[in-house]
Task: structure prediction
Amino acid sequence: MKRIAILCPGRGSYTEKTLRTLPAGHPWVVRADELRAEYGLPTLSELDRAERFSQVLHLRPANVSLLIWLVTMLDSHAAMEQDECVAIAGNSMGWYTALAVGGALSFDDGFRLVQEMALLQERHAGGGQILYPLVGDDWRRDAARVEAVKAALASSNGHALPSIELGGFAVLAGTEDGIRHLLGALPQVKLGSNTYPFRLMQHGAYHTPLVQPVSDAALETLARLEFRAPRVTLVDGRGVRFTPWATDVAELVRYTLTTQVTDPYDFTKSVRVVLREHAPDELVLPGPGNTLGGICGQILCAEGWRGMQSKADFEREQAGARSLVRSLRR
Result:
């Protein structure tokens, strides 16, 4: 039995390859469909069994968030039955999933948190997010790219802001004017086969003060959720731990519905704390896709974990007998 840490993905992980993966008749799938019906929304089973993938339908925040949440819940449960989970973290929306995976929320309340936040984000839509690499193809920090991000933010007149620290990437957010500014101010660069900067589809200005109305509404709409101390240690987007033996539940609620919504989210720091405080044998990535695989590799290299310094070092470790990162749906 391994000591694992589970890292839950954010909203950008769902693709057409995820269709038809929900196990028909599973109690969690049945219950999620019942809860969706209460909201007057298509069931997750209907979305999962669609003949073809639709960006408009499947990537709508109120749909994709719950599809990712449910797949991640199912994967995490299976991983925790097989190995000892010592810590759980998540990227952005993945924090909400982590709460349910770790037992700080029941299945129903975890569902409601994700569904209500997605609906609130649709209701208060505006602005967006872009992705930009801070490393080169070898995953070593590129000082010129770091400085380009700083300069683009500084020249945005407050319309663009940092959003997520994501391994070797910066996620930046802003108003529509801010996004246009970033797309024009940041020099085009390539990482692998992708060209950056690029805008994340149907993403708002998450983790910035621009979404304060979402936080305000969430405090009222989600006041009845029953938070509790987790069964497994949770690490949030500040690197703060909530443990089974020392959790201030009021602070957990406050962070989830206020700070997590309006302040930058540091996924890099959360993984760093997981590594340094819990030293897991393996980082397990549940849920759709493999969006966090390379990002976790970049964080491990930045940490010098097992002496790794570059992408080649990480790939060599992954090919060995003691792989560090396991994506459950790669």
